Amino acid sequence: xxxxxxxxxxxxxxxxxxxxxxxxxxxxxxxxxxxxxxxxxxxxxxxxxxxxxxxxxxxxxxxxxxxxxxxxxxxxxxxxxxxxxxxxxxxxxxxxxxxxxxxxxxxxxxxxxxxxxxxxxxxxxxxxxxxxxxxxxxxxxxxxxxxxxxxxxxxxxxxxxxxxxxxxxxxxxxxxxxxxxxxxxxxxxxxxxxxxxxxxxxxxxxxxxxxxxxxxxxxxxxxxxxxxxxxxxxxxxxxxxxxxxxxxxxxxxxxxxxxxxxxxxxxxxxxxxxxxxxxxxxxxxxxxxxxxxxxxxxxxxxxxxxxxxxxxxxxxxxxxxxxxxxxxxxxxxxxxxxxxxxxxxxxxxxxxxxxxxxxxxxxxxxxxxxxxxxxxxxxxxxxxxxxxxxxxxxxxxxxxxxxxxxxxxxxxxxxxxxxxxxxxxxxxxxxxxxxxxxxxxxxxxxxxxxxxxxxxxxxxxxxxxxxxxxxxxxxxxxxxxxxxxxxxxxx
Length: 491
Known about the structure:
Blueprint: E1 7-10, H1 20-35, E2 39-42, H2 54-67, H3 90-102, E3 106-109, H4 113-125, H5 141-149, E4 155-158, E5 165-169, E6 173-177, E7 185-188, H6 196-206, E8 211-215, H7 222-234, E9 244-248, E10 251-252, H8 268-274, H9 278-286, H10 301-307, E11 318-319, H11 322-335, H12 338-345, H13 363-374, H14 383-391, H15 399-405, H16 410-423, H17 428-441, H18 446-458, H19 466-473, H20 475-490
Parallel strand pairs: 1-2, 8-9, 10-11
Antiparallel strand pairs: 3-4, 4-7, 5-6
Helix pairs in contact: 1-10, 6-7, 9-11, 13-14, 13-19, 16-17, 16-20, 17-18, 17-19
C-alpha cells in the first residue's frame, strides 16, 4: 500500500451521546490511517432532521478531541471536499439521484406501505424472500399516470443488478451475495429527502475513500453500496474506484447481547465522568477485536499505530469486560509520572466532586500523598474519597466501616496505639512499628491492629497506605482523631 494512499472515514450521526462501540470504530479508522500515513476524514451524517441534534454534534467533536483522535479533513479543519456535514450537501445528492434516474440505474416506486407489507407477508407465507419484489421496476407511462392520478408520491429505488456480488472483506475474507437476497432499495424518500443508502456511498465516492472500516451490523448493506458505486462511476461521480471493506466484530454486553446505546456501560460520558484516562480506555477498546501481541495487553497509542493491521482484526464477537477495562486503566494511571498524575487528578479535588471547603485544600499535603495514591487508583475519581481525610476537619462518618472495625476490645487497642504513636518519631516506618507493638500487646496481628486506627483517622476501612497517610496528616490531627474515636466508644 503506497504511503499516503489510504483515505478512511469516520462518519457518525449526531444522535444521543457517543458510545464505546462508536469510539472503537473511530479508533480503528484512526489507527489504520496513521499506520499507513493516510488521511482520516471526519464526516457528520446528519440528514435525519427528526433525530439529529446540534448538541450531539458538539458532543461528537468534543469526544474526538478528548480521545486525541485527530482528523485530517472535516469539521473545524476543512479540506478539499468540504462541507463535511451531509445536511449541507443536499443539492449534490439531489443531482446524483436525478442522474441515476435518467440513466436507468434507479426508478420511481409508487407502492404504498400497506401494499408492501401485504406482499412481504405473502412472500413469507410462501417461503420466499420477503424483500422488495420489483413491482415498479418496469412501469409503463400509463401505469405511472394512473398512480400519479391517484395522488401517490413515489420514492426512488436503486435498481440492483440481476447477478451475484462478490467482494473480499478485509476482516472476513471473500463474501458473495445473490440477487434474491439483495433486492432493490430506496435511496430517496417520498418527500425528496435522500436516504443513508444514497448519501453514504455518494460522499465516499466524492471524497475518494479507499477503505471503509465499520461495524458488522452494516455488512448486509455492502453489496447494495458496491452496486451503487459502480453506477456512480458510470455517471462520473467520484474517481471510479470502489473502497475496500472491513467489517468490525460486534461488541457484546451482558447475556450474549450486542452492546447497545441503551446499556449504561456503553456511554463514553460515563468513562469520562469516572476519570478514565483516554489512553487506558482506548487501549482497552483496541482489544475488542484486535491485539498487539498474545502476551501484551498494555500499550500506548503510538505502539498500536505502529503495529495496527486491519487484517489482524478477529471476526468473532468481542465481549466488553468492565473489570478488565478498569484494570487496564489502572495500569495506565501507574505509568504516569507523578506530576502528570497530580494534574490529571485535579478536577476531582475541587467542587463539585470535593466534599471539603476550597480553603481546606493543602497543596503540599496533596503532593506528599499523591505517589501513594497513584499505586491504588483504578479511575481518577477514586482520588476524592481516598484523600478527603486530609482536608476535612473530621473524617467522614461511615457507619458500616465503624461497625466492621470497632469490635470488642478496640478501645483498649486504640488507647495503647495512641500512647505508642504519641511517643514515636513521625515517620511511616516508626508509625507502623508503633501500631505493630500495640497489636502485639493485645495479641493482634498488624491487619487487625491497624483497622481501628484507620477508621478512627480516615473514617473508612479501606484507603491509601495507612502509615504514609498518618505521616502526611501529622501528629496533632492524628492523635486528636484517635481521641475522638475513644470518646465515641466510651459514649
